[in-house]
Amino acid sequence: MSSELINRLHENRQRTWNEAKALADRVDAEKRGFSGEEERQWERLMTDIDTYDQRIHEIQAQERSAQAASDALYAAGHSARGVIRNEELRAWARGQGGRGFEIRHPGGPIDFRTLSNLSAGAGGSTVPQGFYNRLMAHLIESSGVMQAGVTVLNTTSGETLPIPKTTAHSTASLVAEAGTISTSDPAFGSVDLGAYKYGCKFQVSTELLTDTGVDLEGYFAMQAGRALGNAFGVHALTGTGAGQPRGILTDSTAGATGATGLSGGFGAQETADRGADYLISLFYSVIAPYRQSSSCRWMMADGTASTIRKIKDATNGQYIWQPSTIAGQPDLLLNKPVVIDPNVPAIGLSAKSVIFGDFSQYFVRIAGGVRFERSDDFAFDSDLVTFRALMRADAAMVDLTGAIKHFVGGAS
């Protein structure tokens, strides 16, 4: 039933896109800009497309959650162990255990499909097996950067972690017979990944904690994951590196720069080196090995995506934005996936509004997992139990040779 609903939503999305395309084609054929009413109609259509995307994503997430629960029951041999684990978590939340616990990755290379348990020394409780995975899923869905294929390092402690970074590659040159080969060594630097603390606080009624029909694990994972993902996501893009992670836009370089007089935008395609030409220039400013990476993609805010959806190429008059033909898959821009992140600056003067490149060259370090703590006293007069979640993380780009580039709007 859910698959049929997803298909219907995707069909509605495609019809909406076709309506938007027809509107843009009509304006283009008449060689004019959008009128005020047409602009409002376009924005409504783009909002409808985004709503369909969100609904499809929610249904698919529910399907994955249901499948995970089914797999957990099967792995438990239909025994009562899964129920016991959930009751242990609920008992801890009601105060029958230690004050806090940590959700840790078991170590080794990061693999979000690998599920972890609580440490025995932090309250003695064992979390249902999918808790870590569900929390990280909500954290990732709240941050476009975390969706983009970044490299995640998961460490058990928070001491400074030095990471080599490449600032220049070796070069080769033509050498005559018996000639001397010139020396060209790659240039390396170092970036230290620390452990900046992120925290969120939320409150739960005692009724919710005692109601066995409530998915307490899912509620905790959603509240903490989204809050931590939103907070970290801002710094992952624009962080200065001083008292916070170093963001992608801090170290990426310009691959294309808008002309003056375009209000930071792309301009009309009829003019040479405008419109799609800017995005094509940005695309080819990233060298082929990075462009061919599975982690190479575009990133922008919703408003920028709405603008780019109207742009056609100069050669064939075809839209460079390609709507997904598969439900739940990202749209493509010049055959590369597009990730939407509201933290990317909007189109504007001197604004870095479009990012493109190999996001695996951005390293995210999560130190010690996520720690949950409970207080029965903070909101005693309201009969609410207060929970807080703490995460330590840092991030930086490790290849400064141009793995990730951005478009920056004209200065005036």
Quick structural overview:
With 412 residues, the protein is an alpha+beta fold. It has helices spanning 2-29, 36-75, 81-93, 131-141, 144-147, 206-210, 216-238, 248-251, 276-285, 288-291, 302-308; strands at 100-103, 151-155, 161-168, 187-193, 196-205, 253-257, 296-300, 321-322, 332-333, 336-340, 352-358, 362-375, 384-397, 404-408. Helix 1 runs antiparallel to helix 2.
Task: Write structural notes for this entry.
The protein is an alpha+beta fold. 36% of the residues lie in helices and 23% in strands. It is built from eleven helices and 14 strands. It has helices at 2-29, 36-75, 81-93, 131-141, 144-147, 206-210, 216-238, 248-251, 276-285, 288-291, 302-308; strands at 100-103, 151-155, 161-168, 187-193, 196-205, 253-257, 296-300, 321-322, 332-333, 336-340, 352-358, 362-375, 384-397, 404-408. It has a seven-stranded mixed β-sheet. The model is unreliable at 69-84 and 106-129 (pLDDT under 50).
